[in-house]
Amino acid sequence: MGNIAVGMNLEAVRHHDKPFEWGVAKAAELGYEYIEPMVHFGRELMSEAGYFHTVSLFDDPLRMRRLAEQHGLRISGLQSHGPMGRPERHCEYLKLAIRCAAECGAPVVNTDEGIKAPWTTEEEDHVLMRYTLQEAAFVAEPRGILIGLECHAQYSKTPDGLDRIYNLVDSPSIGINLDTGNAYLAGADVYAWLERVADRLVHLHAKDISIEHSEAERGKVTGTPVGCACGDGVLDWARIIEICRRCPRDIVFSVECGTVDQAERSVKHLKSLL
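Above: the chain sequence. Below: its structure as tokens.
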């Protein structure tokens, strides 16, 4: 246990106006071992037309599995973010994503609390999040799927806040997907936070932050969609790797960057350290 592999979050192809199939082939070409697809509910014009990388949950999950296998890749998880505190928006989506993950071969479904409703209190939000998480756990447990809770929004921006969400539901299916870039931009000590959750870590979003981005936004935001290439920014990846090697389970570093060029530099840098 504690082995580390490198995967590509397909956000890296978002600005290239290419479909899912192109992104999977590119990940294999660059030398990645895993991919992390993003799934959406219903039908979406740009992805249906081949200009966007997300996959509909209405599609056959074997579409993702077969394509990954065709390119010698595995699926590390599904990116399934949404507002957990708004069950009418996220609950059924998250449960369907878990069922999809079980069939496509993704061991983890990643999510966060998302943007809260403007009229609810903090206490109400946590009751609503507990409802969504418990419903999701009921679906995840019998299928052996893990739910990776990510630090991304107003409540999960601190270690205590993420732990409060984690502790809402007692389930072996609930773990942590730490996003290193989000944690850094929120103002936290990334390495201390990673140490704190190491025994519960099920997946890692490997996101680096450029010096310019750090100077402009650190302490002012709770996260960001993508970062720079791993190794081009402020984070010490050798130190992150050393911490993750002590985790009780194997961890995939799913690289979250904005372009294919950054994805190429990221995989080279991380593999040189591994």
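The chain has a mean pLDDT of 97.
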